[in-house]
Amino acid sequence: xxxxxxxxxxxxxxxxxxxxxxxxxxxxxxxxxxxxxxxxxxxxxxxxxxxxxxxxxxxxxxxxxxxxxxxxxxxxxxxxxxxxxxxxxxxxxxxxxxxxxxxxxxxxxxxxxxxxxxxxxxxxxxxxxxxxxxxxxxxxxxx
Length: 143
Fold this sequence. Notes:
The protein is mainly α. 77% of the residues lie in helices and 0% in strands.
């Protein structure tokens, strides 16, 4: 009987991890930037963080290194989206690093030409991270 429970446990664990694993999203090369963003947002709305990350990463990969203003704005949007997903997943250390890297892009020459909303949102989310971390420190002190 012990073997039955062990086999059942191992089978359920394997099933759980395979179901939760992020599968490679099928991202056609001909998708426009707008379509990549839309698909990322749709995945994010369904808490499919891995799929959303893959779409934002594709957006980033297709535009990084280009020097036109549209591509630079898309890079900022992709970087914000990636950082925001890490924030939503509770990975505040990685999210903070990504948001700070985005803010460095705004502080660099040409940053004034980037879409301002991602800078504003990054600063707000960094403030939320600071507040959550402060609340955690205060809770530990009370114990």
